[in-house]
Amino acid sequence: QGLPYNREALRDPAINVVIGARELGDLWKSTKGDPALTIAGYNAGAGAVNRWLRDPDRAGLPLDEFIEAIPYDETRGYTKRVLASYFSYVWLYAKKGEERVPPLPLALPKHH
Fold first, then answer.
1. What does the pLDDT look like over 10-34, one tens digit per residue?
2. Which of 18, 48, 101, 108 fits as disulfide partner to 44, beta carbons 3.0 to 4.6 Å?
3. How many other C-beta atoms lie within 10 A of the C-beta of residue 112?
4. In the chain, which ranges are continuous DSSP H helix?
5. Which distant-in-sequence residues (6+ apart) come within 8 Å of 4 by Cβ?
6. How far apart are CA 5 and CA 9, in angstroms?
7. 63: nearest Cα among 27, 100, 29, 103
8. For 87, which DSSP code?
9. Angle (nearest 5°) at CA 71 between 69 and 75
10. Are 82 and 75 spatial neighbours (Cβ–Cβ below 8 Å)?
11. Residue 36 to residues 7, 60, 90, 109: CA-CA distances in angstroms?
């Protein structure tokens, strides 16, 4: 979308942040705003998350069990750390009258 996308360009923080934000936004849309799936997809790639969602052994797992079953140690830990930070920041910065605990879908979406 008009930005250079190569190793050198990604070392430029101004370009890297824009590309990363776009990627996060795209993942947010594709997961219908599911924070856990967005975070896991950002780390492991959307294709990996889609494979895990289609896996019959994971079908119907509650979200916490799904996260614990992520086969990549790095992604499993990353997802838990970023979710914890997400909840902390929402709680800390909630305005008066806003919900201090963000909703988190506990059931995984049905994947075809």
1. 899 988 899 899 999 999 999 998 8
2. 48
3. 4
4. 7-10, 13-30, 35-44, 46-54, 63-68, 73-93
5. 15
6. 6
7. 103
8. H
9. 95
10. no
11. 28, 16, 15, 12
Taken as a whole, the chain contains a residue count of 112
N-to-C CA span, the chain: 30
The Cα–Cα gap between 19 and 7 comes to: 12
Residue 7, judged by CB atoms within 10 A of its CB (0-12, 13-18, 19+), counts as exposed
Tokens 């614990």 sit on residue: 68
- Give the CA dihedral 70, 74, 77, 80, nearest 10 degrees: -70
pTM: 0.81
Question: pLDDT confidence of 72, banded at 50, 70, 90?
Answer: very high
Structure tokens belonging to residue 98: 């806003």
